[in-house]
Design a protein that fits this description.
Helix content is about 45%, strand content about 15%. The protein is α+β, with helices and mostly antiparallel strands. α1 packs across α4 and α2 packs across α3.
Length: about 200
């Protein structure tokens, strides 16, 4: 029988302190009062991106990127904590890690954001909105005298495109797609000049 995790911090129990130490270029994780040590694996940017939800609107924060390996280490030690307790343990550990490890996670964060935005840019820019069943039924009733929708001459208007980018991002994307250079000096006039 597996025990259900309970909030130790809410029940007046002090959360254990987590520690990391470096040995032979490998970080090890352990908890105060626990005899075992486990390898602390720093994820790659692709591992971080795989853990993201496909529908997420924002890239993961540096704190989330750091918390996930801490959570895996706690599982390897066969310890169960609620998410908020894992967050408290990782937050406390984050304040005490060495500068080299902090720099590695900051670099990982910036690489992940850059890769996340590359992967989302086209998806967000060309995200079609499908009309709901009710509005499509109304559309069919209003256009009952329109030509046959199955004929190749008819044009379907059930798919609309909504721009998910800011005005500035939209200008940059359009400029990059068509090979134009962005000129921000004269707002509203001659924003793009063709590249030579």
């Amino acid at each position: 029988m597996t025990s259900k995790p309970y909030s130790r911090s809410n029940n007046g129990v002090r959360l254990p302190l987590a520690y990391l130490y470096l040995q032979n270029d490998v970080y090890y994780f352990y908890l105060e009062g626990h005899p075992n040590h486990v390898t602390f694996i720093i994820p790659t940017k692709f591992q971080v991106l795989e853990s993201c939800k496909p529908t997420s609107k924002k890239p993961p924060t540096i704190y989330i990127i750091f918390r996930n390996p801490v959570q895996k280490c706690l599982r390897q030690l066969s310890l169960k904590f609620e998410r908020k307790d894992v967050s408290k343990i990782s937050s406390d550990l984050w304040r005490r890690i060495d500068s080299n490890l902090r720099t590695r996670f900051e670099n990982l964060y910036h690489q992940t954001i850059e890769e996340w935005r590359k992967g989302r840019l086209i998806f967000e820019f060309f995200n079609p909105l499908i009309a709901e069943a009710e509005s499509s039924a109304e559309h069919e009733q209003n256009n009952s005298d329109s030509p046959d929708p199955n004929s190749p001459d008819s044009v379907s208007s059930s798919v609309e495109f909504e721009n998910k980018l800011s005005y500035r991002e939209n200008q940059v994307v359009i400029g990059e797609l068509f090979g134009w250079g962005y000129v921000p000096l004269i707002p509203g006039y001659n924003k793009y000049l063709e590249s030579p």
